[in-house]
Design goal:
- With 367 residues, this protein is α/β, with parallel strands linked by helices.
- It has a single domain, classed as Glycosidases (TIM Barrel, Alpha-Beta Barrel).
- It has twelve helices and nine strands.
- An eight-stranded parallel beta barrel has the order 1-2-3-4-5-6-8-9, surrounded by five helices.
- Helix 11 links the parallel strand 8 and strand 9.
- 37% of the residues are buried.
Amino acid sequence: MRTLNSPARRGRRLLVAGLLAGSTTLLSSQRPAADKGLKDYYKDYFPVGVAVGPQSLQGEEAALIKAQFNSVTPENAMKMGPIHPEENRYFWRDADAIVSFAQANQLRVRGHNLLWHEQTPKWLFKDAAGKPVSKAVLLQRLKDHIETVVKRYKGKIYAWDVVNEAISDNPQEFLRNSEWLQICGDEFIAKAFEYAHAADPQAVLFYNDYNTERPEKRERVYRLLKQLVDAKVPVHAVGLQGHWSLQEPTEQELRAAIERYASLGLKVQVTELDVSIYPWEKERRAKRAGESDAYTPALEQQQTEQYRMFFRVFRDYKNVLTGVTFWNVSDRYTWLDTYPVAGRKNHPLLFDQNLKPKKAFQAVVNF
């Protein structure tokens, strides 16, 4: 019979202690370090950004932005309607505040956006009598707008979403039947890139769109980009918005899209990433009676696995993928809380309503 202090007993205690220490080390290695943010985990891959408004530039949200991200995109402040509400008046305050915050904290800035069919001021398309303007007038107004905005931030904004969502939602059409198209034909797209390049030759210029991974729309986006590249229009990159869901895109669709666009010699960014817990809907509607917006453990796990897959693919394409930007800071506020269903809470981001990292965050940083 061995005593409590026998060599064998002491050996077993040391062995158990060693195993426990090893398991503790293993567990701790699987947890993200408290002093590391997304930007630090991905420093050898690509910048990680976030869309912000002026309300996010102070307090705990600002602290989270500085800890986690190294790039910002103005969510609304630089869209044409907010920044240029009247022909002879620009509203600079919010955009300036975001750029100043970025400069003070060594954050890169993506400009968003110079031309879109939404959030566009009505004056742009009308003359003094309220009639549609001519093509020449509209292109001159576009040129004046792009020159004014881009030159103001020259050297402070490294990339611009120049043209946003010009491809039609109708698979039977090529370009969206916007007022831009109705007045200018398709020439407005090339002109926008030319005006932006002239205003800041160093800026990286993007075409930006959603559902760019769906095979049918992917081919129309590719067709537009190829036309621009072949015509030597200064388009440098494509933005995949990344408004995705638990259902789409598949890994195969995402890889195929990145490879298809990169084959044109273009760089790629994911510019507006979120992963909705609901299937994609385009049209706005009211919340239905009994429609739940509970963030269940099952939905959380599905979302976690989608984020894990997306970032695994992103890392595989680090040679062509030059940035990933989340659309909003946390689940506390997201545009998906009002679109397409007003009042239906979504939980699409890596940080919860208390700004704490979710399971999906762990999946993204543990690789």
